Amino acid sequence: MRAENPSIVYCATYGFRAAGPYAGKPVYDDIIQAASGIASLQTPLVGDPRYVPTIVADKTSSMAVAQAILAALFHKARTGEGQAVEVTMFESVVAWVMIEHLYGESFVPPLAPAGYARILNRWRRPFPTRDGHLAVLPYTDAHWRAFFTLAGRDDLLADARFTTLASRLAHIETLYEELGKIVATRTSAEWLAALDAAGIPAMVVNTLESLLHDPQLEATGFWRIVEHPTEGTLRMPGIAATYSRTPGEIRRLPPRLGEHTDEVLREAGLTVDEI
What is the pTM assigned to this prediction? Predict the structure, then answer.
């Protein structure tokens, strides 16, 4: 293809790189979740490996494909030179997982085992309130001081185990267990009002159904209702990024089988008779 068109950017994407022993293995999302360590990350939380209930490997590697192609197109725009790009699901997702979980293994020799303790803490979960669940995440020193004050827990405010980031991380399971006990003492609305006023990160736990009517998404017009020529009325997510000069919009709907064949072949230079 390069001999025919030296400026072409050609991207191929696979499960595994051709250079390694896994080359050619068939791959779906679950396979990569297992291979990349995502499934095993659930073990400290639920007792055995589990898949994340969304196609996280497919979507993560798809974003890696888009980024790789854009980088190659940027090089082409500067130099006129195309190139072959290879993006694999395995390496893309391993890099995504291990950014924080390399942890002490980032250093050679290692300073600590792999695995970021705060993320792997079995108490890291949406906390039950008196009438629901909330995500509550005091993070900085100031957050924790404000939270312990709101909770009326001067004992925890003075506890040396919880005064700095390093000491909190060393006692993270105990800290999050206490956090859960405290959150359970009030309603979701009471906590949200108090935590928002104090600047402490907190959020409702949306369900798949409630996302369709989330006030933030409604205010930003995220959900789009469109009319498909064969499938009827569809709900689609909008474009997440916004652009001050080139705003995006949904101009094409999911294509029917063969819908763009003639258009693509005309762009390639074929005549109507040839098509």
Answer: 0.84
Tokens of 157: 């405010």
CB 32 within 8 A of CB 56: no
Backbone angles phi, psi at 74, to 5 degrees: -65, -40
Helices and strands (H, E) in the chain, number of each type:
14, 7
pLDDT (0 to 100) of residue 44:
84
The SS3 of residue 275 is coil
Contacts 24+ apart (CB under 8 A), 227-232: 228/253, 228/254, 229/253, 229/256, 230/256
Contact assessment for residue 214 and residue 206, using Cβ atoms and an 8 Å cutoff: yes
Helix, strand, or coil (residue 216): helix
pLDDT band for position 126 (cuts 50, 70, 90): very high
Cα angle 82, 86, 90 (rounded to 5 degrees) comes to 160
pLDDT at 35 over 90: yes
State the Cα–Cα distance between residues 155 and 201, nearest whole angstrom: 22
Per-position DSSP letters for 51-99, written without gaps between them: --SS-HHHHHHHHHHHHHHHHHHHHHHHHS--EEEEEEHHHHHHHHHHH
The type of residue at 254 is P
Phi, psi angle pair for 197, to nearest 5°: -65, -30
CA-to-CA separations, 259 to 235, 249, 264, in angstroms, rounded: 21, 20, 10
3-state helix, strand, coil in the chain (%, to 5): 45, 10, 45
Provide the pLDDT confidence category of residue 73 given band limits of 50, 70 and 90: very high
Judging by DSSP bridges, how do beta strands 9-14 and 83-88 pair with one another? parallel
Going from the C-alpha of 84 to that of each of 73, 156, 199, 203, 254, the distances in angstroms are: 11, 57, 48, 44, 28
